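[09:14] KT: can someone run the structure on this one? pasting the chain below
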Amino acid sequence: MGLDAFVYCRCWQDGLTPPAPVGPVGFDEEGYLSLLVAGDGYTEAEAVFDGWMASACPHELMEQASEHLANWTGYRLFQQALGAAGWSHFPTLRAELPSANGGRMPAEAAARVLGELDHFERQAVIDDEVVLVDEATEAVALRYVAAYQGVLMLGPGYRAGVDQEGFFVLDPDSDPPATLFRSARFRQRVLPGGQVQFSDEEKSVRIAMSPVGGAGTPPEQLCVKTRPQLPAEFDYIVEPLRRLCQAAVATGNPVMWC
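[09:31] RB: done, structure tokens below
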């Protein structure tokens, strides 16, 4: 799950499609090209309209551009980088980037975003990132995400993550949440029965939770590091966002967040 977006083409607006077999058709209050009739559930007319949209022009679903931007962690990390570089350089991004799925960004704003993305790529100075890495491979297991207060793992009876002070596991059922384990460098051992043992030079605890870096073989020795970040590391979201904005400028249609 994460944030996706699209921009409608102009084929229907410019009269380049065959007439819709049902109607009336237009942009609804949320900006979606829709069948503007009230109905209970998914009606036969809506099915006919959807079939027309799928084949009325060369663009799939009448979308000039359609992009997956990032999962929510990647999206929050991008926002974090923008804030570290200075929101004053990115006023349109700050105003227009959504906090959840849904909404739209006007084409006029998309034009300004293109300039802000250029500034981010060429001039942004970003804070160092805090990461938890596998000491054997340097693979990143967790990244500090300020929007989540560092918490990236959730389950019954635990919250785990990483911040500037190290890796931590909290008991969310206590008030305030008690720290079950915290360390900047530690060993991890997966035990039977769904438990994980965390240990460093001072302590050893067993906690019922998923292992850190659980995809594949979990790492055994982990440590927290601070390392430099470059704007190019955010190409995964900058480039699709740029393509969406270019499509919005070309068509005059908004970027639809979804």
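[09:33] KT: thanks! The chain has five helices and 16 strands.
[09:34] RB: yep, looked fine to me
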